[in-house]
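Quick start: what a row looks like.
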Amino acid sequence: MIEMDVILASESAFPRSLAIILLLGVGCQWLAGRLRIPGVLLLLTAGVLVGPVFDLIHPEEEFGDVLFPAVSLAVGLLLFEGGLGLKLDRLTAGRSVILRLVTIGTLVTWLIGWLASWLLFDISSQNAALLGAILVVSGPTVVIPLLHLARPREPGGSILRWEGIVIDPVGATLAIVVLDTLISGSGGRDAVLQIAITLGAGAVAGAIVAVAAIAALSAHLIPDHLRNPAMLAAAIVAFAAANEIAPEAGLMATTTLGLILANQHVVPNQELTAFSEDVGYVILGTLFIVLGAMVDLDALVDVLPRALVLIGVLVLIARPIAVWLSTIGSGLPRNDRTFIAWMAPRGIVAASVATVFSQTLIDEGAEPFPELVPIVFATVIVTVAVYGLTAIPVARRTRVAKTEPNGIALVSNHRFIVELADVLAAAEVPVLVVSTSTGVQRDAFSRGLLAYDRAIDSHDLDLTLDGVGIRTAVLITDDENFASHAAHHLSEHLGRANLFQVQPDEDDDDFEMRGRGAFGDLTFRHLAETARSGGFGVLAGDALAGGDKALFRLDGDHQVSLVSGRPTDAESYVVALTHRSPT
């Protein structure tokens, strides 16, 4: 009876706990974006607060036996999403560096972490080896947000992105082999064989599922509305199949699946990479809140002083040595090597693997390692904080940071847009004309303007936007199909918040807006007619006549922003649509 009461109480608490986890998981990531700080910091803090501090959720009780398998599967899905972003054609340099970082670099980091752990903590050499193995992993969930903040130039950014994704299954495999060796007492030859089996099983399972998915899509067996669910199902099948062959091989399987789907040329990539980032954000938030809620605060405080020393060794000794050995003879500039050496945060894979393995040691009757989880969590929290707070200044100090984008992309197939682009360019605003009209492209080139003349759904558009330094795009068109096509690809790169569109005409009720309203109540027809009869010009804010319409505000240091109302600042200048013929 008592056991049944516990089960019923746990079931009744589950919906409340799930609501708290999802609310905090999404809310912390939103707040982190507003504050421009790593979301992991807020997520882990929130998890600790609702778990051990305020005792609001108890994941181990409320999720029961499915908790640890669900955590492992969720990590696999995050690696699948990360693999979908690994395109070989975007990595023009640094491939050998990536290979060495996930092999030589992993080995160096493990050995140094192993030795430091054994010297710092009162643990056996075997447990120190396990801790060192877990701490080699980094992960896209922490690396990619930091890269978005620091904006390093290529190939450094791509090298770190690839390393962060590929090293997770490699590090997890190393950790599971060390764990198995610790439990069973198998020798070195068996350990090497198990590494090969685990990585091989994962790669084969991922490749087989990828081939099946590509064949189904190319034969049009999967309808459009089922592509996302089908890709999600494919990732889960690959993960489960690989784990049936070898423990933790599922992480390699999902990474391989994503990598193959992203780089094949049988079906259009956009049909395969539609695995929603929204799902990834939900998984990431849920995992960190759940794992944070399972932290033992007393144990964390006990290990913190020695953990800080271990973190110092990993950050200041292990990482620089690993990067130095991995970049010898690579031709990578010294500044890029320095920045890469200062970027190795630990993330969700380290936290989840430590949590699962700690329980495995208990279940298998091996030597307990109660310090494992608090040490790893301290490493995750501190490294994310250190790298998160220093990524931007270090990128600037090493001169690898790209300048903050401030340019405007004018998206239109109407020739009057070239005149507007010319006025913006004369005001020293980075401007790019995006058009599928050869006439518009030709007019732009004849005036010395930058114009994009390739397919809008090509990766070349992303490279061009980055190269010009575009932050905002404005759709100026009455062609709904063109607007929809351009908006889809521009929003993926710039974000929906930075995509604007001129209002449709009053009588065009069927026209669907693809971006935020631009230029207040100005309609496309009014803009086009006035542009042809008058034109565009730079005017003082208080010099606008009754029929003039301010479009962009020009501030100091060539900063530009859209104008939604009528400016009244006499000291500001605007790019305006005017009935007069500007000189």
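That is the whole record. The CA atoms of residues 339 and 394 lie 7 Å apart. Confidence is low (pLDDT under 50) at residues 1-9.
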